[in-house]
Specification:
Length: 249
């Protein structure tokens, strides 16, 4: 018998079917708790890679534990949403989530399976239900640089679903899907290109979010300089839209 399967202790099999790492951490509010990963005690946050699984329990046994699941090891600094859960037996006597809510906007969802008095399985998958996705097409003659607005401190931009913390150069004829790493329905983005009045740069500082109809829109705009491109909006829906940039002249 594996040590993690001690029948006097909670044993939760955690499977990661998401596309990103799920970090497992002890809840600091449970002062004396020491989690076990596959039977081995740990006080460190544990990275569960996509496609992997582990059995989570507690060193001292018992039928309850406090666990945090996040998609960044720096979740406590606002780098990702997370779940802070109290796991234990529910009123029916089977293992479940007794208490806890998501904080922020986690990019993964979980479901519970194979629930028994002292064990269960938690399955994590990608959460696409809140993912803001703006398709940006460059039909202009100019390069367009895309970067997350630095005034949105905790925002991390994504390009085609992957975290991209540096400026992205969109060439003429290209297209990308711009979003943010933390699922949400709004973001701040800068689009920079050539200034028609000189050799510098110009562009648009935009706030993108839902309008009164619930569809994605440009909710605030701060043009700077005389941009060589202009944009139009298309296919506006909840959580998605397209932006097409063309020559301004």
């Amino acid at each position: 018998m594996h040590p993690e399967m001690n029948m006097d202790s909670v044993a939760v099999t955690v499977k990661n079917d998401a596309s990103e790492i799920v970090y497992i951490d002890r809840d600091p509010n449970w002062d004396d708790e020491i989690l076990t990963i596959d039977g081995k005690p740990t006080m460190q946050i544990y990275p569960l890679n996509p496609g992997a699984k582990v059995v989570v329990g507690t060193k001292d046994g018992g039928d309850e534990m406090g666990v945090i699941f996040a998609t960044s090891p720096d979740y406590d600094d606002g780098k990702s949403g997370f779940y802070q859960l109290a796991i234990g037996q529910d009123d029916s006597g089977t293992m479940g989530v007794k208490d806890g809510d998501p904080f922020g906007h986690p990019t993964v969802n979980y479901s519970l399976h194979d629930r028994k008095p002292m064990s269960m399985t938690m399955l994590f998958v990608d959460d696409d239900t809140l993912s803001l996705a703006v398709t940006v097409k460059n039909d202009s003659s100019y390069d367009i640089q895309i970067v997350g607005d630095p005034n949105w401190d905790d925002q991390v931009m994504t390009i085609n679903g992957k975290r991209h913390e540096k400026p992205y150069d969109l060439k003429p004829g290209g297209s990308v899907v711009v979003g943010i790493a933390v699922d949400y329905n709004q973001m701040g983005v800068d689009f920079t290109t050539k200034d028609l009045d000189g050799g510098g740069s110009a562009g648009y500082n935009l706030e993108i979010g839902p309008n009164d109809a619930g569809n994605e829109d440009v909710t605030d705009s701060y043009p700077f300089g005389n941009p060589a491109v202009k944009y139009t909006l298309h296919d506006q829906k909840p959580l998605s839209m397209a932006m097409v940039f063309v020559d301004a002249g």
